[in-house]
Design brief:
mainly alpha
Length: 463
C-alpha cells in the first residue's frame, strides 16, 4: 500500500474537520432561514415600487434599519428572485471571509514556515464553526462584507497607500457602527486616512440624501432613534454593554450605568489604541477597535461579533511558536482556546428565555465578558515585530523606538535576544527571512533567545 504524502494527509485532515463542522452546523439548532437578507430584499423591492423604505416590515414587525446608502447598494436585489438573492449573498460572504482570513492568517503561516494552504484551510474551518459566523451566514447578514471593507484599509495602511480610509468610509456609510474605525485613525493621528474615511462617508451619505431626500430624512430624524425597530435590548442575543445592563432590569434599563460603562471602555480603548499606533501594530489596533465597537453599540446581536475574530487571531499569534515554552504563554493560549470554544458553543443561548442568579448573569453575558477581556488584555507588538505585518510596515513617525512591547515586555530593540524591529542581524531575523523555516527551527531559535533575554525583559506583563 502506497504511503500518503504530507499534502494528502493534510487534505484528509481538512476534509474530516470540514465534514465534522458541517454536520455539526446542520444538526445543531440555530438556522435563521436567511431572515435578514429577506428583510433587505423585501424592503428594497417595496421601496422601488413607490413605498417607504422604512415603512415595510416583516409579519413580526422587523424592518430595514440601515442608512439609505445601504439600500442604494442593495438595489441590484430588485433584479433577482428570492433564491438567486440568497446565492449571491452567500457568494459575497464567502469571498469577503476568504479575503479577511488570508489577510490575517497568511502572514502568520509564512513567518512560522507552515504550509500556507493548509493553515488557511484549518483557519477557515475554525472560522466557520464560530457562532457569530454561523449566524451571519444563516441570517444573510452584511457583517462580513463590512469587515472586509474595513480590513481593506488595514492592507492599504500597512503599505502607505493614499486611498487608505475609503473602505472604512464606505462601511460607515452602509452601517454606522464601523465609524468607530474613523475614531481609531484619529486617535493614532492618521490624519490623511481619517479625512479620506470621513470624506467618503460624507460624500456617500450626502449623495444619497440628494438622490432620495425622503428616505434620508426619515432615517436620520426617526428610524435611527427608534431602537425598538431592531428588537428588545434585554434579549440574550444583544451582547453589548447595553444588553448586559438591560438584562439586569429589563423593564427599565439603567442608562446612566450604561453611559458610565461605555465611558470606561472608551478610555481603555483610547489608551490601548494609542499604544498600538505608537508601536505601529495596526493589526492589534484594528482588532481592539472592532471589539470596542461591539461593546459600545446599543445593540450588538451575536452575529455582529464577527468583529471579534481578528482579535482571536492576534491573541493566537502572540502565543507562537506552538507549543509555547513559557508558562505565561501556555496560560494565554489556554484562555484563548476556552474563549473560542465558548464562542463556538453558543453558550449564551442557554439563557434565551431569561434566568436569574450569578450563573445566568455570567453565562447570559459570556460574549460581553469575552469582549471586555480582549479589550483589556489583547497583546500589542512593536512596529515591524508583528508577524502579520509586511516588511517595513508601520506608519511613518510612529515613534516606536524605545516603546515597550507587550508581546515580550521589552522594547523593539530587545524583543527577543536583541532582535531589532527589522530583525536585521539577529538569529530571529534570519529565521523570519526564510519562508521555508520549519516550526522546529523557529522554536529552537526563539527558545535560545528567550533564555538570554527573558530575565531582563519583564515578559510577564500580559496574561
Amino acid at each position: 500500500m502506497t504511503e500518503l504524502t504530507q499534502n494528502q494527509r493534510r487534505a484528509l485532515v481538512v476534509t474530516a474537520l470540514a465534514v465534522l463542522i458541517g454536520v455539526g452546523i446542520a444538526v445543531v439548532p440555530g438556522h435563521r432561514g436567511w431572515f435578514d437578507v429577506g428583510v433587505y430584499h423585501g424592503a428594497v423591492n417595496h421601496w422601488v415600487r413607490g413605498g417607504g423604505l422604512y415603512d415595510w416590515t416583516t409579519t413580526n414587525g422587523y424592518g430595514f434599519t440601515y442608512p439609505p446608502f445601504a439600500a442604494v447598494c442593495m438595489l441590484p436585489m430588485t433584479l433577482l428572485a428570492w433564491y438567486p438573492t440568497i446565492v449571491i449573498s452567500l457568494a459575497l460572504t464567502v469571498a469577503a471571509s476568504a479575503f479577511v482570513l488570508r489577510l490575517l492568517v497568511d502572514p502568520l503561516a509564512r513567518r512560522a514556515g507552515w504550509s500556507r494552504w493548509f493553515t488557511f484551510a484549518l483557519a477557515a474551518c475554525l472560522f466557520a464553526a464560530l457562532n457569530p459566523v454561523r449566524d451571519t451566514v444563516s441570517f444573510g447578514q452584511v457583517n462580513l462584507l463590512l469587515l472586509a471593507l474595513v480590513y481593506v484599509d488595514l492592507w492599504l495602511l500597512e503599505r502607505g497607500h493614499r486611498l487608505a480610509g475609503v473602505g472604512i468610509g464606505l462601511a460607515a456609510a452602509i452601517k454606522l457602527t464601523p465609524a468607530v474605525f474613523i475614531g481609531y485613525l484619529l486617535v493614532t493621528r492618521r490624519w490623511r486616512a481619517a479625512v479620506v474615511a470621513a470624506g467618503t462617508t460624507a460624500v456617500a451619505t450626502a449623495g444619497t440624501a440628494l438622490l432620495v431626500p425622503g428616505a434620508s430624512r426619515q432615517y436620520f430624524l426617526a428610524a435611527l432613534l427608534d431602537t425598538d425597530r431592531v428588537g428588545k435590548l434585554a434579549y440574550v442575543s444583544n451582547q453589548s454593554l447595553m444588553g448586559l445592563v438591560a438584562r439586569l432590569h429589563p423593564a427599565h434599563p439603567n442608562r446612566l450605568l450604561w453611559l458610565v460603562l461605555v465611558a470606561a471602555v472608551l478610555v481603555v480603548w483610547v489608551v490601548r489604541a494609542r499604544q498600538a499606533g505608537r508601536l505601529g501594530d495596526d493589526r492589534a489596533g484594528f482588532a481592539l477597535t472592532g471589539v470596542v465597537g461591539c461593546l459600545i453599540s446599543p445593540v450588538t446581536w451575536v452575529h455582529h461579533l464577527v468583529w471579534v475574530v481578528p482579535a482571536l487571531v492576534v491573541l493566537a499569534d502572540s502565543t507562537l511558536p506552538w507549543p509555547p515554552a513559557a508558562r505565561r504563554l501556555r496560560r494565554r493560549l489556554g484562555i484563548g482556546v476556552a474563549g473560542y470554544l465558548v464562542l463556538v458553543g453558543g453558550v449564551v443561548w442557554l439563557w434565551a428565555n431569561g434566568g436569574g442568579g450569578p450563573v445566568a448573569l455570567v453565562g447570559g453575558n459570556a460574549y460581553v465578558l469575552i469582549a471586555v477581556g480582549l479589550l483589556v488584555r489583547l497583546p500589542v507588538a512593536a512596529a515591524g515585530g508583528h508577524p502579520g505585518a509586511p516588511d517595513g510596515a508601520g506608519h511613518a513617525g510612529s515613534g516606536s523606538a524605545g516603546c515597550p512591547d507587550e508581546r515580550t515586555g521589552g522594547t523593539p530593540s530587545s524583543r527577543i535576544g536583541g532582535a531589532s524591529a527589522s530583525g536585521g542581524g539577529s538569529a530571529l531575523g534570519t529565521v523570519r527571512g526564510s519562508s521555508a523555516a520549519s516550526p522546529a527551527r523557529v522554536a529552537t531559535t526563539i527558545s535560545r533567545s528567550v533564555r538570554t533575554s527573558g530575565r531582563r525583559s519583564g515578559r510577564d506583563q500580559i496574561v
